[in-house]
Amino acid sequence: MNTLKIKLIMNTKHTATTTTSILLCGLLGACGGSGNSSSPEVVSCGDTGAVTIDEGNAGDFSNDIASPTAWTLGAGANILRASTSSADSDYVSFTVGPCDTLDSVTVTDFTSTANDNVAFMALQQGATFTIPEAEAVTGARIDELFGYSHYGTQSINLDILPAVGQGQGAIGFTSPLNPGTYTMWLNQTGGETQFTLVFNVSRVQP
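The chain above was modelled as a monomer; its predicted structure follows.
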């Protein structure tokens, strides 16, 4: 794999948003572009900061694999608060910015009304989830998952992203997670469970 060389060329501050433009030479895997090393490209990196999404404020996250709740991560600690149960799976697509990496996903809260202390997360690349729940719960098409893992009370204050990347039979990945859009299936086969996940994102440094 070619090593990207990054050079800071401009930093322009606006009232509400800081936009940093960087020049990437070589393969532009981190910040998009054609990958033509003879034609360096200027890529704008928006920076609105970390974003919190909370079912308590926004309402139930999507139950539709073709139209997940969309979430764009910013640099810092992005917080997701949600609840799932056997009758309520959630689908959330998140986007790691073109000049960012997702370094960790930390469980900071996990509370089950039925003492069901284990839940499940599966991940696919792209803006939708492609496996219907009826098939996914059987383990069918596991090789189409980018990763998956169980997590729960035993995961409090732990980073579960490496475990997701090591799900047996899945495509697999190694942390940190590169720029792109990914879709999560958040599943609980027991009673209602409330949880908080913190998605820690770093900005690429020149």
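The first helix runs from residue 55 to 58.
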